[in-house]
Amino acid sequence: MLQSCLLTYPSISPPLRWLPAWHSSSLAPFVALSSTRSHYLSTCQTPLPLARAHGKSFAHRSELRQAKRIVVKLGSAVVTRGDECGLALGRLASIVEQVAMLQNQGREMMIVTSGAVAFGKQRLRHEILLSQSVRQALHSGQNQLKDMSLPVLEARACAAAGQSGLMALYEAMFTQYSTCTAQILVTNLDFHDDQKRRNLNSTLHELLRMNIVPIINTNDAVVPPPEPNSDLQGVNVISIKDNDSLAARLAVEMRADLLIALSDVEGLYDSPPGTDDAKLLDTFYPGDQQSITYGTKSRVGIGGMEAKVKAALWALQGGTSVVIANGTHPKVTGHVITDIVEGKKVGTFFSEVKPAGPTVEQQTDMARTAGRTLASLLPEQRSEIIYALADLLTEKREEILSANKKDLEFAINSGRMPASMLKRLSLSPSKLNSLAIGLRQIAVSSQDSVGRVLRRTRVANNLDLEQITVPIGVLLVIFESRPDCLPQVSALAIASGNALLLKGGKEAANTNRILHELAQEALSVHNVRDAIQLVSTREEVEDLCRLEKMIDLIIPRGSSQLVRDIQRAAKGIPVLGHSEGICHVYVDHEASIDKVLKIVRDSKCDYPAACNAMETLLVHRDVLRTPLFDQIIDMLRTEQVRFWWTVPVCSGMPAHGLQMDIASVLVSLLFSSSTVSVS
Q1: Where is each Aspartate/glutamate/uridylate kinase domain found (predicted)?
Q2: Which of 36, 197, 392, 622 is least buried, going by the fewest C-beta atoms within 10 A?
């Protein structure tokens, strides 16, 4: 039944041009194999293309996770070996593994591949060697054999000889992941003829519906010369000149969500790679084409970067997102495709949305330049900046609290933030006053932070070796939903003469924005406004940790899990990670009653949501059953503190003493011996 349905397509008569190796009847075992798979639909009608919810390309990298239909284009430099004869099996196997994994996740994967010419060249050279006599073989050096050229049809003959072997290799690799493949060969004429284009579209949709990975290539054995970029009706289209244009045309025709073009370059540069001032573009906006200078094409490809960009822009205009990335780098080949789909910062992402502000690389450059000026200021000048920031926290209090109120309302309405995190997110007039006081203290105490001589050694007469404090450079501080962290860290960076990149939690976006504006306003006192930058783009923390040539130190402020994640992600940048600590308060039997009550209350009740709030209260055994102990308990009970008693305490307490009020914070009472202060 399935076979007969597949044979009723109106245009399938003798073997199709794009399926030259198959007769239509040979689909029977293929369909029988696929019918057992869970993704196969029993209906035999041609499915409609999957419509994207937004109807246009993705605006940001983070949206690439939503891509369902993906076209992966493998350039000649990716598929072939360095000697341009034969395939790079290791890279190809890694790519197949990634494509199969995404296919098994429920995505619809298509591959536009090169490599038939290289595969056929290897086979034909082997045939030439076998056809020689023994004498010819002995006198023919390797270079002579390598330079032997076939007639004008060498490339076409190589493609004809290598296409079947290339497809057999793909089939063998995908079989290891229980994934079926299908071969489709096309030419430019297949897209110019409406009937053939509809048949191609129908065949591809049927294959995708049966969870089969189509592997598409140009039919180089019979391909005609490329035509101008217009069809028979004069409508501007892209002509199939190479696999870049083929992948773009196919992606638009199939309404793919994402086109991943893999080549031997990291992505799109603003000038030819290898030049001193060449910079890799993370995101490319079509309006910036005039600022790009192109180099030569790859060693084995037909097109160059200019052809890739033109094809990418054509696909982008048709509603398909495009990423150009390196598929030959040994360190990233094993996960380059999956990283792109996960939205990580790999290659160049083409977007129709112009970036609202500078990229994180540009922000880092600006911070480093201004940071050098900041480090050269006098200590009194850096203190003036900190004093100005402290004054702004008081003067702009209403604006800060208004922005913080928006963040709180959004967090409360979302319902995903626990009460303790809400308390950390919240700012109050008293907290702002405390911040201002703390900043003024930093301004006073940090006069000798930079340029202080720590050690001096006389090496020889008139030769001294000095150890002097100097700024580290550019710091990246990553903090969670604690906006009060921003002015504190900013003041410390200013005092130490360091440039600063700040990456805060999105929960405090409005508060962080206003506080960063105040920090830059204070820095403007001495024209170093750009020394502190707020990374407010959609950059992932893992992507920031890869800027090892731009960032000198990463300081994570948050949970231990955040610290571990950043330490794992930052391969080439030092991370100042804190270790697990304790939050204990010990009360000795000779301690002052007034000081004990003030310290215990302040350490727990003043700001319970703080990460350094008291968790355990240790008391000397002689304090038990004393007025001091009773006053501590009464004070904590008044503050609605919940008690968890330890066994030694419980054994010395009356039964009614174990029944305490339940509140939102926790204190554990332990005993120490008369000789040991902590147990």
Answers
A1: 68-326
A2: 36
